[in-house]
Every structure is written in C-alpha cells, then in structure tokens.
Amino acid sequence: MAEHKVGEMNTESQEKTFDGFMSWVTWSVIVILVLLVGMAIFIS
Asked: Is residue 8 scored above 90 in pLDDT?
C-alpha cells in the first residue's frame, strides 16, 4: 500500500466539481427567490 503524504494529493478535479456545484446552487437560489418575489407581487 502506498504511503500517504499530507499535501501531495492533486485536488484540481475536486475543486472544479465543488466550484461548479456552488455556482449551480447560487443560481438556483437566485431563480427561486425571483420566482417567489414574482409570485408575491403578481398572484396576491
């Protein structure tokens, strides 16, 4: 089994995945908030 050395793992792929996920979450929250505000204004 290989020796584990702290700080030597390449995390570029995980960082890109996390950045994409955070971007998706941010835009999803923005869309949901816009929909809720629109519903509050135009439906009631």
From this structure: no
Phi-psi region of 40 (alpha: psi -120 to 50; beta: other; left: phi over 0): alpha
d(CA 14, CA 22): 12
The two structure tokens encoding residue 42: 């135009």
Q: Which amino acid is at 3?
A: E
Amino acid, res. 5: K
- DSSP letters, the chain, are -PPP-TT-S--HHHHHHHHHHHHHHHHHHHHHHHHHHHHHHHT-
pTM, to two decimals: 0.72
